[in-house]
Predict the structure of ADP-L-glycero-D-manno-heptose-6-epimerase.
Amino acid sequence: MKALVTGGAGFIGANLAITLERKGAKVIVLDDFSSGDYRNLVGFKSDVVAESIKEVDLKRFKDVDAIFHQAAITDTTVRDQKLMMQVNVEGFRRILEFAVRLGIPFIYASSAGTYGNISGPQKEEMAGHPVNIYGFSKWICDNIAKEYMQKTDSLIIGLRYFNVFGPREAHKGKMASMIWQLANQMKARQRPRIFKWGEQKRDQVYVKDVVHANLLALKAKRNGIVNIGSGQATTFNKIIRVLNKVLGTKLEPEYIDNPYVGFYQDHTQADLTLAQQIINYSPQWEFEEAVKDYMKEVGFVEN
């Protein structure tokens, strides 16, 4: 198989590109390196095209067998609405139109940000209440995808990612997962800092499950947009308990005020019923085992 992975120097894109290559696929990474990092692709043996999804000549990808569209501005603190919409929506529309025109299977990254502050478990039909421009851009992409699904037989699958964590996210800085940020604090023997009182719940899904979902999507029974998460809601207090166990530390959390009241998701939890029906997805990693695997991969604990 020959696959195109847009955003392939980013966190999820790089994990996906490298996994595809290890499985024998010929992979082309498309990334403008505005937020991705070359270090994520160290060891990658296939091709990299360093251009923007808004401008690249798509005809050069006319012979690919699948497109995995991960490219986007993912920093939810970006306030430039025009930039966010041009990259996330118009870039998406351009590549989707190309894929449909040539009948190329199109698997793309949506987001749980489309749900906004609706309490979990979140079902796909509950989306449409974003609280920031990032979530709004992803919601519009979903709406565009739905229109195309109604008028084409070409495969289109949207994967609504929840809170993804795992190797190759370090370059994201403040946008990296709470698991990564708290692990770094605790590795430095600092008390982990979380918002009062640590009982906010998030669906934390390991990146290896997300990659698996992308591969399953190629065999989807029908087109659709589905949740990709762990199906469990994990409190920040539990994250710290698990990290203490895995890292061999005994650090108590430091609780701080939440400056994002009204714009903060207190409870995310993916309802996976539709994902199981359409792409046969079920998470393979339990949270503590995923954290152990992650900390081994980044060298925080010995194998």
